[in-house]
Structure formats: structure tokens, C-alpha cells
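From the pipeline queue, job 12 of 40. The input is one protein chain; the requested action is below.

Action: predict structure.
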Amino acid sequence: MRTTTSRVTLAGAALAAAGLLMPLLGAPSAAAADTRYEAEGAKLSQAAVATNHTGYSGTGFVDYTNVAGSFVEFTVNATAAGNSLAIRYANGTTTDRPLDISVNGTVVASGVSFGSTGSWDTWATKNISAQLPAGTSTVRATATTADGGPNLDRLDTAIPATGGPAVPFGSHTIPYAAGTLKPSGSQSALDQAVVKTYNAWKSAFVKKNCGNGWYEVISPDADHPYVAEAQGYGMVVTATMAGADPEAKTVFDGLVKYMLAHPSVNNANLLAAEQDASCKSVDGSDSATDGDLDVAYGLLLADRQWGSTGTYNYKDLAVKHINAIKKSEVNPTTHLMLFGDWSDSGESHYWMTRSSDWMIDHFRAFRAATGDSTWDTVRTAHQNLITSQQSKYASGTGLLADFVVNTNTTAKPAPGEVLESPNDGDYSWNACRDPWRIGADAVTSGDSASLAAARKLNTWIKARTGGDPGRIASGYHLNGSVFDSGNDMAFTAPFAVTALTDPGSQAWLDALWNKLATTPIDPDLYYGGSVQLQSMIVASGNYWVP
């Protein structure tokens, strides 16, 4: 068993005084009891113990044979039920070596990516959300391709401590893909900048305006005071900030209560898109896909953070929400996201999709949580569309349109207004989030398609602005020409995430980070402030996929 300590440094005194003490950089989380199992002591099939690479723990590591079906099986003993597995591995090739992870013979995470770590001497940790029962269990990691598995060093299991988050903000226990940049400066300073921005964001937008034990994220610059997108942001942010905000679980549960009280009229397991100042659902009470994707993702984060045995069964709610998204918000022919559960085959928007709904890391999390291979198909369809749209319509910029039409034939940017404005076929107020969303998957998964898409965006914007974040405009045609010369954090902040993916962009990343960290949250601009905060969470190394 590993022991943990809790220490307050002088540099963290201000945070401690505010009740926002973060774990010391590099220290294990005090919120979980971890047990380590070395791979060389596990049951092996078509694999062998080796010592010919450096950096492993214990007395060696396991080298899989290059064959599908080879496995490493750990026998673990848990004193209480938990939901966290961490596999330390190395992959010195450029080829992904996916594994099926099973608990007691049941696959709980299929085709989990174990991408390149840069060399066989460089180790990374893959965290997997999987319910582990109390008592003795077997955890098997089985190679699914002819390349076999990566080199396996060990398995760590974590049992969340009562009331504490399993992945506290600032613990940095879930690393990004090898080669990912981070802004210059100490990790503590980066974390503190995020906490400062979070506190301002929470003060401005997290409210209890309608009673009933609800918390709501208010959106003063949206069409309605409360929108599903905002509630989704609130759930993801609050779960991620657990450990820095002592109220995180209370706020999260209040957001869950609000979500459950506002079901979509078309599918009760989805969230109605809009509410008025009295928190009453309006405009048909149907759903908006982007809000639902983040609600489901936030519930998965909460299940990992606090388990699902409290007031709410987060995992059960998440799976219900995920299945409802699949049923009502995924086009069954194209496997692309619809605008909401109101768009069906008889409706004019059925063969359209919105690029800001293409949340690749969310689809990976949904696959892991449900075991449903549909989400692999959905993820691949969106990644293929990103690649083709960049190649065909924005080869020099990588920009994506707010809306894409003709998804059943030859998908292309909207020719004009199809839902919101004459700029629906441009890089505007929806697509501005794309660098953040694409970059987040790139740095957490190391996926080659996401990396290529993110780097294309980064290369263009860095050159277009001459490395000056203040020159990022708030609207571009796909060829890179400006149609709105204003500045807004919704457009500026996401490019900090794509900058993480390019080893040659340290100065650019630092300039972007400085812009984000020194720009105060505007209490009248919920949208830009929310994108700014979430981009900072990713850029500081605090984002993780449940």
C-alpha cells in the first residue's frame, strides 16, 4: 500500500486560506487508497518477463508476443469496491497496441488505446474506469491485434476514500501523450492560474436562482438565461475541479438535480435545451446535442471522482444519457451527431451536423463506459469527416465550418444560413471551439488523426497572427480571410490547446497562455469565459478522460 501526506507550502497559503488547497505537485492523491501489482508477478500467456529497457518498477516488465490474444492477467484483492485501474506501459513504436481490459472474465473496456510513448524506455500511464468489486478479482489485459500489446510494467488499483475525489485537481496523475508541450513556468503556477480563473467563473455564472436545491449555470449572453450547453459545461468543470473546490460535489449534485428536473419532451433521458428566468423549459423543451454530450461526460467524471453509491448513481445516469444520445441524437445512417432529438428523417436538418458537436474524447469515454462498439463507429465517422473537410475545403488553414450539410452524399460546409446565421458555412461562433475539442483528444489519446488535425490548425493560426494572440479574430472564412475583426476568448483560448501538440510551438503556447491567464472573466460573457476556463484546464495538464 502506498501512503500519502498532505502538506501546505507557503506558496499555497492563499489557496489554503480560501479553502482551495491542491495536492503538492508529484505527490500521490490522498483521496484514494492505491495497491500496486507488478506485471512480472502476473499470469502470462504468449508473453514473457524482460529487463532490457530502463525505467520500470519492480524487478522487470512484461513483453507481449506479437500476436492477438496474448495477455497479462493480474489477481487483485480489494478491501472495498472501487472504479479506477491504472496501467503503466511503454510503446516504442508508432503503431497503437490496443488491449481489451476484462474484470473477472467480462470485458469492461474494449480496444483501449496504448499509443506510442516515444521509446521503449519511456513509460506512460493509461487510466481506465472499471468497477472492481470488493474481494479477489482477476484483471486481464489482452492484445487485440497482430502487433500484440505494449510492454506492461504494472497495474495500480485505487479505492476512492469516502467523500474525496479519486483524481483531485492538481494531482496530475493522468499524463498526456508523449511529446505534449505545457506552458513554461512551474506546474504550481499553472494550476493556481486555473484556480483563479475558475473562482471568477464560478462566482459569475454558477447560481442557485430557482430554489429546489438546484444549481444552474447562467448564460447572460445566450438566447435564454439557462441553456443545456451551460449546464454541461458546469458539470464537466465542477467534476474536474474537485479537490480544488471543497464545494465541488455539492454543486455537481445540484446541477444533476436541475438536469433531472428538465427532461427533453422527446426523450426523458436527455436535457431540455433552454429555460427562462424562472427555470421553466421553453421553446418546445427538446434537446441540444452539445449539452447532452457534456452532461453524460460530466456524469462519467463524477463516477470516477466520487463513485456512484451516494445521492445519485452517476454511472447509471451516465449510461442512460449515453444510450439516449445514441438513440435520439446520432444519425443512424451517417453515424454523425444530429443537432438535437428534434431532428428526424422527415426534418430538413437531418443530413446536417455541427462541428462543435464532434467531441472525439467523449465518444472514447462513452465506448469505455458502455462497452458499446457503436461509439467506435461514431468516433471514426467524425474523425474521417474532420480529415476530409480540412483537406477538401480548408487545405491551407484546417478550419472547419460551423455546420456541414449533405452528410448523406458529399458532405460540405453550409452554403449559407441553415440554422443560425449567414456565416453557418464559416469558422464562426460554433466552430471556434473545434481547436479545443480536437486538441483535447490529441493530447489525451495521442491519436494520429486528432494530432494531424490539431497541428494543421495550430500551424495556420500561428503564422496568420505572427505569433500574437491579440490578432486572433472572431470569425474567419475557411480560406483564412477575416469576416469579423473583433476579439473574443471563445476564439482565442482554444488555440492554446492545439499549440500543445506541436513541439516547435513553445513560444506561441507561452504567449497564448499568458493571454488566457491575464484576461479576467467578464461576468457578462458566459460563453467566452467558459471556453477560456476549459481551454486553460487542458493547457495546464489538468484534463483527463474517464
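Job complete. The chain has a mean pLDDT of 90.
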